[in-house]
Amino acid sequence: MAMESQTPSANLDPITGAPGAHPVGTGVGAAVGGAAAGAAAGTVAGPLGTIAGAAVGAVLGGWVGKNVAEYVDPTAEDAYWQDNFHTRPYAEGARYEDYGPAYRYGVNAYRSFPDRSFDDMEPELSRHWPHSSEGSTLEWDRAKHATRDAWTRLSNSVERAVPGDSDKDGL
Fold first, then answer.
1. Which residue range(s) make up the domain with 56?
2. Can you tell me the mean pLDDT for 16-27?
3. In a domain, 94, yes or no
4. Are the C-beta atoms of residues 99 and 141 closer than 8 Å to each other?
5. Of the residues 35, 52, 71, the one at which a domain ends
């Protein structure tokens, strides 16, 4: 995994070119929608109905997923953490300039790997932190708490919007 520092982008939709596209949510929605529609069609029309339902469901699910991914807005996440980082026990007496890159790293990592748990990804995130720290003075032992917080906040937001345990964290 090449976890490199990512600069904010317009997140252009690959089909329409409109800003604000969320490919993670589109994919999640397509998978969930396709499975649900396929199962529903399959109970009525048998195996061929399942295939047709999955195709239609994927298209509709992609549209729904794009809307669900509005929960994964990097700008809103940055604003949230800037306003709330000081409430976290690991950030006592710290500056946002040190923890902000760790929160952004967690947001970007979750967006890249929404189907993985933080614990599964932590060794890899640790290895790539020095190259993704955006000048933060934090060592990984301190940055990982903020990275985990950002990951968990996004995971929980997405899971509230799309039922299931997408990151397999048991919550």
1. 21-71
2. 53
3. yes
4. no
5. 71
